[in-house]
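Researcher: I'm comparing several assemblies side by side, and this is the next one on my list. It has 708 residues spread over two chains. Same procedure as the others: predict the full complex and return the structure.
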Amino acid sequence: MTEQKKTQPSLTRRGALALAGAALGSGAVTGFPTLWAQNIRNVTLRQIGTGVSGLNPIAEQVKKDLGFTLQLTVTDTDAVAQRAATQARSFDIADIEYFSIKKVYPTGALQPIDTKRIKLADKIVPIFTTGRLTPESAPGQGTSPFSVGFVESKDAKTFAGKRTDLMTLMPTVYNADTLGIRPDLVGRPITHWKDLLDPAFKGKASILNIPGIGIMDAAMVAESAGIVKYGDKGNMTRAEIDKTIAFLIEAKRAGQFRAFWKSFDESVNLMASGEVVIQSMWSPAVTAVRSRGIPCVYQPLAEGYRAWGSGLGLMRHLSGLELDAAYEYMNWYLSGWCGAFLNRQGYYSAVLETAKANMSENEWGYWMEGKPATADIVAPDGKVMEKAGAVRDGGSFTDRMGKVVCWNSVMNEDRYMIQKWNEFIAA
Amino acid sequence: MSRWFPWLQAAPLALVLATFLLLPIALIVVVSFYDYDSFSLIPDFVLTNYQEVFASPVTWQTYLKTLWFAGLTWLVTFALGFWLAYYLAFVVQDATWRTVLFILCTVPFWTSNLIRMIAWVPFLGRNGIMNNTLMGAGLIEQPLEFLLFSDFSVILAFVHLYTLFMVVPIFNTMMRIDRRLLEAARDAGAGFWQTLWCVILPLCKPGIGIGSIFVVVLVMGDFATVRLMSGGQSASVGLMISNQIGLMQYPAAAANAVVLLAMVLLLVAAMLRAIDIRKEL
């Protein structure tokens, strides 16, 4: 009896090895699995992030390609930052926004990522590695990913501001945001950010209630309407914050806003139900409204876009096998499947070449090159999202990311800004 | 030995309360005097958190608004709850019917709080069932905007959620009223309203008191209903605390929590002063 018990596990271990070998040999594993499958199978990586990229299909694909378990916790932007900083040990990976990292990284909750272990580090879109999309383009105001993307040493608490071997986050997904509109209900062309304040949309406008992002949308509107002139929208002075909040309170008292939203699904519901016809929105929310058969446009505006980016950060406590698994996961993230998956939802992935290889020519043309779709564009769940002939709002990748004028930000006057923002919400 | 017995018997509960109630509250009080920056608490003894609470006109507004929500909700739930309980206790004679109707009152509690609130949105929205019906019937030309994302919808959701907390204790005290008292009142020549005012209402006081405490305490501490039903346009103290926690301003949140706790305790004390709830229990 006892002997039998002893031999049982070794048999399964051998079986697992054989299976792993077979999988490797058959080419079924498409990532970069260099670790022994039988060890890594027991690894569970706990990731916290937002609904943007905390998606179950990604976790399922990780299980399939890499063999280990990715456990996702999904919450809102503020809560991710908060929990990453204060409960660092309860997660292994933070899928976090660059503007949050400006606050979180200095707390020491994360360890830097060794770019030498990221195989495609040199293929990452230059927005993250040089700060500019093309050598000529402007970097944009605010907390750009590049400005907080690198550190000098393992224990550094300040950002390098230039490319080094140590990244704070491995970029995963980013996008250029603008206003979403209901073309059937606005009744006129929308061209500028200031159109949010048009009295015609009284009681039908909305803005998002995440201070770090909402203030930027508000700044785009205020600047467009000529109410406030900013030195740097991403780092306002107290006087600029006061003026911005004053104009928001005025608009709120005048009844311009229908509601303020905090999470992705709230924005979808507001728009789909017709409660709101013009509002701050995120690209996949527009897609979600459209896939319900309701017209919704992610309207390009004359002043340009407000952009954001997020990435994977490694918690400080990660080491050994878990750390190796995390690097596997990050390499896998850039290796193509995931990039294609994210691009198909209207986001952009960090390494474009590998994503392109995983997308059809039609998909790539529609999502990335601004070309009319040659055939129906199908959502990841199989639903037809766009009919043949449709063109993406705002056009190609370079058209959209090239017109970024500011990034989501954490300002020096952050505490003051949040205090004033709360006054706006309570007013 | 026997002298210690009552102490021993009370010890488990006392221990649980001390660990899970008194200790956390003490911690909140301590933290409310801490200083803080973006991501860390700085142990200290500063009064800035309380100064910010009392000096900012916004917090005053928010506290007043919360009291206003509580007051209005109390009024409506009391008016509704009293008559519902009256109907159940005095009008319905059959015990089976009474039970069936009583269970009907608990229907709102068969689903989760959040789902109940979200269900109001398609009902009250601009293109919701209510507006479509009214417009279809030709009663209104423009959709009524105030139905959703307004103070009206917040109060409506509160009333929907908390009326039962009024009904149950009032119903309970009404059932204990000796029916001979009502007969005596009638024999003595009292009409319906006089009986209600001089006999039933005074005898229901403990139930009303308990119901009021439930409703007021629940509304004062609420944050989810206010946020969802006002579309983020209104603020309550609970919501303010939840926002501050979200932005990791724990000491500020703790200071607000202490002030709110003191306020609610004062309100409850005032209610207990007016009504002796132990009298009838």
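Model: For your comparison table: The mean pLDDT of chain B is 89.
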